[in-house]
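One example copied in:
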Amino acid sequence: MTSVFDLAELAGLAPAAAPVPVVPVVVIEDAADAVPLARALVAGGLPLIEITLRTSAALDALRAVAAEVPDAVVGAGTVVSAAGVAEAVGAGARFLVSPGWTERLLGAMRDSGVPFLPGVSTASEVVALLERGVDTMKFFPAEAAGGVPYLKSLAGPLPRARFCPTGGVSLASAPAYLSLPNVGCVGGTWMLPPDALAARDWARVEALAREAAALR
């Protein structure tokens, strides 16, 4: 298993292996919602699903989706420790995403055996990962850290680096990110509006996911 989160390779794990333009970033408060939510996202054309380790329900949600939604490629986000890496992989995570990285965290993700996406927000962090053989990264927080102009400016001096921008990305801004040569996909939450989640309106989630999937 390569230690680099290869977006095309990971998308190929899902049915109808077309490039996936958007990775939904999911915060689960009730593990019982995980399976119907994941099924709605998959039905809408977004099989790569990042469940963030921000709530007490996250690991149970990961287990449920991994066991019951075979068409989903479910991963763990907000991974910030070696212990979190082990817990996420043990719960069935097929990829890992961190908001930043340290040598210890990077080593744990590298040793996990699953693809991983370490977070960066500066050119120096990008160069440091390239030195360590990692060329695909999360750019976070995307909008606050400079957005499309910043990533465009990195493409010239750092052409090997590829990014998944996350943090403030919307349906309106996603196309500009996806048009950049160094962006493979974006991460977002706009297809998961709080009122739809509160109402368990999975049909609306599916429709918004389909709209996002059409950005490819």
Notes: The chain is about 40% helix and 15% strand. The longest helix spans residues 202-213. The chain has one domain: 7-210. The first strand starts at residue 22 and ends at 26.
